[in-house]
Design brief:
This protein is mainly beta. The chain has one domain. The protein is about 10% helix and about 65% strand. The chain contains two helices and twelve strands; from the N terminus they run αββαββββββββββ. The strands form two sheets. It has an eight-stranded antiparallel barrel with strand order 2-4-5-6-7-8-9-11. Strands 1-12 form a two-stranded antiparallel ribbon.
Length: about 270
């Protein structure tokens, strides 16, 4: 009897084990990998901001003109009154377009923009220059500038931190007008398209699959402009045989801070890791 019970128990255990082995394996499905925003692709957008800078006006008296006959003290006083620093400022705004490539967290791209500008300054200085008093009216401005820049940065999902730099081109307008108390007036001006350079940094954030917003700082240097003075039409003091000629130069650099919005072309590209 005991032998029969043991055999029965062994048979049942063997049968249950075999049945369990035939059942399908049970497992828990792993969660899908997290989606990570990908910055690769072209984009187009607009920006608006504020710019401020400086322009040093330098005056050189042409010693091949009638200035050669004047005393050193008189010349130095004239130059000191004429030489001034202008601090232009104004609103900027424009359009930009570019393309990004992303590899891992690194993002590399190229961007071009064109901007209208109201960065300008007028300075009027009046002072004694014995035997008379002279008033200098000096200006500097840029009506437009454009840049072509490389960008390199690090993406933290939907936020991109980047540095940027490259070519800058813009128009530079400078002017210098003189009214003298002894009855004569002179004028000088230039309107030149200049090539220079720009560097900066920014942060851009994707707030929707195809839309980003950015804040950016740029420092831009457009170099120097040079021009020469002439007597104004109708000037009452231009002695026969005399020709006083001044050579003017102005450098021009400025800072801009701006915010912008970009539309990213195509369907949103998503990477999974």
């Amino acid at each position: 009897m005991k032998t029969l019970v043991s055999a029965t128990a062994l048979l049942l255990a063997t049968s249950v084990g075999a049945f369990a082995a035939d059942l399908p394996a049970r497992y828990t499905k792993a969660p899908p990998p997290a989606a990570i925003y990908n910055w690769t692709g072209g984009y187009f957008g607009g920006n608006v901001g504020y710019g401020w800078g400086r322009s040093n006006l330098g005056t050189t008296l042409d010693q091949t003109s009638s200035w050669a006959a004047e005393g050193v003290a008189f010349q130095n006083t004239f130059v000191a009154l004429s030489n001034n620093r202008l601090n232009p400022a104004g609103i900027v705004g424009g359009l930009q377009a570019g393309y990004n490539w992303q590899s891992g967290p690194g993002v590399f791209g190229i961007e071009a923009d064109i901007n209208g500008s109201d960065i300008n300054k007028r300075l009027i200085v009046t002072g004694p220059n014995p035997p008379t008093t002279r008033t200098f009216n000096e200006t500097i401005r840029t009506d437009w500038f454009m840049t072509l820049r490389g960008r390199a940065g690090v993406a933290v999902d939907t936020t991109l931190f980047y540095v940027t730099g490259g070519l800058a081109v813009g128009n530079v307008k400078g002017s210098w007008d003189l009214t003298s108390g002894n009855g004569y007036a002179k004028t000088a001006s230039a309107n030149v398209t200049k090539a220079g350079w720009t560097v900066g940094a920014g942060v851009e954030h994707a707030f929707a699959p195809n839309w980003t917003v950015k804040a950016e700082y740029l420092y831009t240097d457009l170099g120097n402009i040079s021009y020469a003075s002439t007597y104004s039409p109708g000037s009452t003091f231009a002695p026969p045989g005399f020709n006083y000629r001044e050579n003017l130069s102005q450098d021009f650099s400025f800072h801009t801070v701006r915010v912008g919005v970009n539309y990213k072309f195509g369907s949103p590209v998503v990477a999974r890791y």
